Structure formats: structure tokens, C-alpha cells
Amino acid sequence: MNKRTITYISICVSMFFWGFSFIWSNQVLQLGFPVFALVFFRMAIAGAILLSFTLITKSLQMPRKKDISWFLLLALTEPFLYFIGETIGMKLTASPTLCSVVIATIPIFAMIFAISVYGEKVSRRNMFGIFLTLPGICIVVFENGFGSVEHPAGVAMLLLAVFSAVGYSLVVKKLSSHYNSISVNTWQHVIGAIYFLPLFYIVDYEAIKTISFTWELARPILLLSIFCSCICYFLFINTVKELGISRTSTFTSLIPVITAVGAFLLGEEALPLHKIVGIGIVVTGLVLSQYSREK
Question: Structural domain tally of the chain?
Fold first, then answer.
């Protein structure tokens, strides 16, 4: 397989696990596990794994003095602000599918900023594909017509996650030209865990003392840490290097497809006809957004 094929497979693997991340996060929250505790444990476990791996393999690059502020900003956008928005939004809406679909609006905003900040070139066909995902997203979110969203506060928190993800992509684009992907991923999770530590201790530390850590609870947390953090972010950063911000971000349109189908197969949510139609529109937009005349 050539490099471009491997890149597309890598980003699809990321979207697969990120699609299931909404299901796994919802399972943890439904068991009564606190929001900040969930995110802190996920970041801390992922950070420990990545730091150990990079030190053993001697692949960890130390940030240059002039780039320390960029790494701090990277971790501030994602995981800190992103996961505050995503996890609280998940708790307020209690719908993995709705959450994943709102998050899937990232490509539209990412394209706008990528063009204005980095001057990325996007063809009219690619641009049409990106915007075509929007009606598909709306079909899934607005189940009973426009204005019918039952959890506006939850959706507002999810939009915080969307804009944080766009900011993250812009910073990753800058750092990935000077650092390898595993180093960027490692520092992002180590710094992110430090960011979340005060919130965890102040808000949720007392609450988790009363919670029994069963395998039912530990399993999704480990899956989130290993697959959705350690592996997926590494693959995502590599893809940004290869495809750019706009075309990489468009793959987040796959997340609601995977989440909706996964939630349906696990018996957690229904999959009515209108959602299937919306998913079809999203996938069509995704294909068009990646179309290129290059051989």
C-alpha cells in the first residue's frame, strides 16, 4: 500500500474508535461516575502509557523553549476545553448519537480557519462535500423538526468542544512540522492530565470515594485511554501532516455514523429511517470532500 492509502486507513481507524468513544463515555457516566474524574483518569492513564513508551523507545522530543507556550495552548484546546465541552454535553443530553453529530460539524469550521490561517487550498467539489454533511447532521439532531433540541445547554457545551477541536487542529499543524506525532500526543496528554488534576480534586475527589471500581466501570475507561487517546490522536496527527486540516477534519463526519450504528447494535438507541437518510447524506458529503484529480 502507498503512503496515501495507509493515511486513509489510519484516519478511518481513528474515527471508528472515536465513534465508539461516545458510547463508552456514556456507559461510564450512566454508572454515576463523575465527569471530571472520567476525563482525568482517561488523560492520566493515556499520559502514563505514552510517556513510558516514548522513554523506553527514546522517541520523545523535548519541547523547545519557544514552543512551550504552543504545547500549553495545544493541551488547553484539547484535551482540556474539548473534553469539558464533550463530556458535560454528553451528561446533559444523555444521547451518544446527538453528541457525535454535533461534534461532526467540526469540518465546516476547520475548513474556514484552515483557509484563512494557513491558506489551504480546497476545491469547489471538496467544499461542496464539506457543506453537504450539514443537512445530514441536522436530520439526525433535529428529530422532531427545527428548534426541537431538548437540551440547549448540552448542545452549547458540545459547541465549545467543536471550536476547541478546530483550535487544536490549527496548533497541531504548526507543531507537527517540528515534532514527531508520538511526542505531540504524549505532551498533550501529560499536560492535559495536569490541567484536569485541580478540577478532579476540587469537584470529584470526594465523590469517587464512594464508587466501587468494578470491571464494568474500568473497561470503558481503559478503552477510552488506550484506543481513543493513545492510538487515535497519534493517527490523527499523522493524517493532518499528510492531508491538511480541512480534509482530515472532514473525516469526523464519520463519527455519528459509527456512533449511531454502534449504539443501535448495542441496543442503546434506535436507528429510524430518517437517521439512516441523514447518515447517507453525511457519507456522500465525506466522499466528495476527499475527491481529488490526483492519481
Answer: 1
Q: Give residue-wise pLDDT tens across range 107-135.
A: 778 877 778 777 777 777 777 877 787 78
The 3-state secondary structure of 120-188, one letter per residue: CCCCHHHHHHHHHHHHHHHHHHCCCCCCCCCCHHHHHHHHHHHHHHHHHHHHHHHHCCCCCHHHHHHHH
295 part of a folded domain: no
Give the residue among 188, 198, 129, 146 at the shortest CA–CA distance from 164: 188
The reported pTM is: 0.80
Rounded CA-CA distance 83/28 in Å is 14
pLDDT at 186: 96
Q: Which domain holds residue 244?
A: 3-290
Q: How far apart are CA 114 and CA 18, in angstroms?
A: 22
Residue with cell 455519528: 256
In a domain, 250, yes or no: yes
